[in-house]
């Protein structure tokens, strides 16, 4: 064999091994969970005293978090998994129909995540007074970068 062909064969084998070795790492990453469009609960918890939340408000928000958290975590995991699958489908050159189906699934999961965040904002808005919600909104917007 000539040197060019040997080099090409070795390069292809190395790339194949590299791809196989990195499949698990490349499938999904924490950033694939999708950043929330709005995330108020951490601020509510952090600024509980500043917002002067009543005991009833604190309990209502804690109850909501307890009820909503499993669904939110599930959706975020689904997004992470689907994005990883889409990443690999793109890198591996899977058929267009398979890639497009994964894209639709990612989009649907992202919409589901947005809807969950929307429900959370509405719960916070319903639980806090108007003044408290304005204060929380200002804290949130002031922290965006």
Number of strands: 0
Write the element-wise H/E pattern from the N-terminal end onward: HHHHH
- Structural category is mainly alpha
Helicity level, as a percent range? Answer: over 70%
β-strand amount: under 5%
Query: Using only CA atoms, what is the Rg?
Result: 23 Å
Question: Which outline best applies?
Answer: elongated
Distance between the termini: 57 Å
Count every helix, treating DSSP H or I runs of 4 or more residues as helices: 5
Task: Point out poorly predicted stretches.
Answer: 5-9, 17-26
Sheet with the most strands, sense and barrel status: none
Q: What value does the average pLDDT take?
A: 86
Description of the molecule:
- The protein is mainly alpha-helical.
- 79% of the residues lie in helices and 0% in strands.
- It has helices at 3-27, 41-46, 55-91, 96-127, 130-143.
- Helix 3 runs antiparallel to helix 4 (96-127).
- It is elongated and about 75 Å long.
- It starts with a helix and ends with a helix.
- Residues 5-9 and 17-26 have low confidence and may be disordered.
């Amino acid at each position: 064999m000539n040197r060019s062909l040997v080099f090409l064969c070795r390069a292809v084998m190395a790339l194949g091994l590299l791809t196989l070795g990195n499949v698990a790492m490349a499938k999904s990453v924490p950033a694939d969970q999708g950043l929330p469009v709005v995330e108020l609960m951490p601020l509510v918890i952090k600024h509980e005293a500043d917002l002067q939340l009543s005991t009833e408000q604190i309990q209502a928000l804690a109850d909501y978090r307890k009820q909503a958290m499993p669904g939110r975590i599930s959706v975020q995991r689904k997004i992470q998994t689907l994005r990883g699958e889409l990443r690999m489908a793109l890198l591996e050159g899977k058929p267009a129909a398979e890639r497009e189906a994964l894209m639709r699934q990612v989009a649907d999961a992202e919409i589901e995540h947005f809807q969950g965040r929307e429900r959370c904002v509405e719960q916070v808005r319903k639980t806090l007074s108007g003044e408290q919600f304005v204060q929380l909104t200002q804290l949130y917007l002031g922290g965006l970068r």
